[in-house]
Amino acid sequence: MASTPTSTIDAPTGGAASPEPAAPATVVANPTAPATVAPAGRPPAVPAERLRRAFEQAIGFDAFLAGVATHADEFAVALDRTALDDADRALLATIPARVDVLAIVEDWCPDVVVTLPVVHRIAEASDRFDLHVLVRGPETRDVADAYPFEGRSHIPTYVVLNAEGDELGVLVERTPELGVAVGGLLDAFLAEHPGLDRAAFPAGLTDDARADLTRRSFALRADLHELERRTLVRDLVAIAAGTAPTRPTAA
Fold this sequence. Notes:
By secondary structure, the chain is of the alpha+beta class. It is 42% helix and 11% strand. The chain is globular.
């Protein structure tokens, strides 16, 4: 169970128009990151005992934020601008039972910076949505690698489980609408840097180019933050409520 786009740095160049949120994700192609639901009868990606230990290794959002070493200012901005509205809360009220969400993250990733605060606000607003933050590292890499796309894990990966520990679905990196926008930025960036190989990206990025792409990414996500919030709420609720479409998984 896993599906994602390839990303290490998020991007579309600023100023994209905000499309209306579509029905729950249906596209499974780079650079989008749709919610993914395990086919019926598929065994869990992580054995129960390892999953139990993963929850023991996980920390709360506040503890994670206190330890952020990269993009601390951007995390603060993203958290400050994120507020759920009545439509979001109405969707959250449709979750039929409590779910646990295991967020597999690292603090350097722009996708983590802009999505994790939204997931935190969801957890604050709903007593049926419990957030657990698992920092990807040497001791947790096996869990992250259980949700690969194109041969490797991506961050953030949001794994939604029911009270019995059954996996309900996975959302990786960003929603489809944001994936389209990020893909546009990446296309523009690569056109400006013809020496970079898209298949190997981000290999070959200089420090200056990486900083420029990260800056553009944060600017774009600031412009689209309301769309990002609405579509994240939509897709995570769809997984939790069992209404997200089932998709093939990638190995």
